[in-house]
């Protein structure tokens, strides 16, 4: 992820939030898909994806590249945590 996109999102640009979600939606879907395998079929994946997107946006706000983790790794953990919290 580009640092410019992250900075724009943190500055409150709605277009940057849309782009952030667009770029990382496959990651959100991967996390939800892996968790959904263990869930009953009546649990809606769409609802979990929405929660995962909120986790992604939270990760974008809290990400600190100086801590050594890639954004993708940081976001994966944040998305997974948000979905598990929702469950």
Structural summary, described in words:
It is built from four helices and no strands. It has helices spanning 3-10, 14-36, 45-62, 71-86. α2 packs across α4 (71-86). Helix content is 75%, strand content 0%. The longest helix is centred in the N-terminal third of the chain and has 23 residues, at 14-36. By secondary structure, the chain is mainly α.
Break the fold down into its secondary structure elements and pairings.
Blueprint: H1 3-10, H2 14-36, H3 45-62, H4 71-86
Helix pairs in contact: 1-2, 2-3, 2-4, 3-4
- Please state the structural category: mainly alpha
**pLDDT < 50 runs, ≥5 residues:** none
**Strand segment count:** 0
Strand content: under 5%
Quaternary structure type: single chain
Q: Number of DSSP helices?
A: 4
**Straight-line N-to-C gap:** 28 Å
**Chain-averaged pLDDT:** 91
Residues in helices, as a percent range: over 70%
Morphology: globular
Q: What's the order of the H and E elements?
A: HHHH
Main sheet, how many strands, which sense, barrel? none
Radius of gyration: 13 Å
Quick overview:
The chain has 87 residues and is an all-alpha fold. It has four helices and no strands. The relative contact order is 0.18.
Which key features would you list for this structure?
4 helices, single chain, 75% helix, 0% strand, mainly alpha, 87 residues
């Amino acid at each position: 992820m580009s640092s410019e996109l992250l900075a724009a999102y943190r500055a409150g640009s709605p277009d940057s939030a849309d782009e952030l979600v667009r770029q990382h939606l496959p990651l959100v879907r991967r996390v939800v898909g892996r968790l959904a395998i263990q869930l009953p079929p009546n649990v809606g994946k769409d609802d979990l994806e929405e929660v995962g997107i909120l986790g992604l946006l939270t990760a974008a706000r809290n990400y600190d590249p100086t801590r050594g983790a890639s954004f993708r790794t940081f976001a994966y953990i944040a998305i997974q945590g948000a979905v598990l919290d929702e469950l």
